[in-house]
Automatic annotation (TrEMBL):
InterPro entries: Porin_dom_sf, Porin_O/P
Signal peptide range in chain numbering: 1-24
Protein name: Porin
Source species of the chain: Aquipseudomonas campi
Swiss-Prot/TrEMBL keywords: Signal
Database matches in SUPFAM superfamilies: Porins (SSF56935)
Amino acid sequence: MIRKHFAGFAASALALAISAQAFAGTVTTDGTDIVIKTKGGLEVGTTDKEFSFKLGGRVQADYSTFDGFYTKDGDNADAGYFRRAFLELGGVMYSDWAYQLNYDFSHNAGGDNRDEDGYFDEASLSYNGFAPVSIKAGRFDPEFGLEKATSSKWVTAQERNAAYDLVDWANGHNGGMGIQASGTAGTSLYGSAGLFAKDASNSDEDGNSSKQFNLRGVFAPMHDAGNVLHLGLNFAQRDVSDGEFDSRIRSRLGIRGVSTDGGQDAGDNGNRLQLGGAEATSVGTFDDDAAWGLEAAWATGPFSVQGEYVARTLKADDNTFDDVDSEGYYVQLAYTLTGEARGYKLGKFDAIKPANKQIGAWEVFYRYDHISADDNNDYAAFVNGDGKSGKDFSDVDDIEGTVHNVGLNWYANESVKISGVYVTSSVDNAKNSAGDDDGDGFVMRAQYVF
């Protein structure tokens, strides 16, 4: 039903856009005059800027092929799917209020087990009357990390870094709701603080949802496109003591096609690295889950380098179990061959806008990811071992994974981006059923933003 509603709204909006272009003359109203813009979606607003709305979206169509550790039997598999298919509606009302509705038809943008008919990636309302402070409430992703703050439209590689897999709860809404205050101080400082109630799958026996607290701070003394120095600090904490929850720490190691939530994937043959935790962790096993992160970036002209480090401690509730510690980091280098600089807004990178409309902008990049976890409870060791009941895994060292990403992005124009990336990975103290501890893959993406 909701798809029909969105389809009808989109058709009406499209008709309005066509009408605006088909007829000459001035559009007038019985109130304040309005301005209609059709470049990059449909945007309508009053000239006094008290009211506006913009209809847009993004479509990311991916195809990947992979083998080795990425499949259980080590043989080649492939996958074709929509990584994201968003319809987005946002705007301003009464000057100080802003709203944003993003509906994901691919149900493949967030974590696992999204509703098969899609879901609201964001449904939020913000009050900006206390500028430079903004207060947002509703469903939206908590802030944690530079790559997460950067829109999925403009992150360099198709998939964000593997270190985020260790702390996926820290920057994903998981069906929950929250309230966040964010703001700037001068031109170089940005900060945010948020409180979130996560979904019912992590609630206690009384139905109380898990609560989460997030903090992020950014200092960027250089904050212009092609001239960036960015430093950031993140912290997130949640209470997991009163509910049964999925404590698994898993990673697709840069290949989403191993296991998608919508579209084709490798099916039962897809293999994900499990570094720690268990699928059904009993009430009282763990008490506190905390993560913190560092972020840094530097850009000069068409060259940029960025990196992040994250660490997480899943603290055991008593002496029966051990804490689960994990950490990860990445370093990324990117260079625009055609000379354009990456856009930057305080706290996040933005789009590369082609200077030459004939050839577009061409960008090459390399990223190295490393993740590891120490789980002496031996859950992951059992999963990644031969699975024989009763085997002693106490001598298994940290489970680790490394990923190399080498890619090319073509920004054909401000709406179309074509990407290709070669991914190769290796793991320590884990193998697939065929005995592989490394794998290779290639991912292609066609992106259209409107």
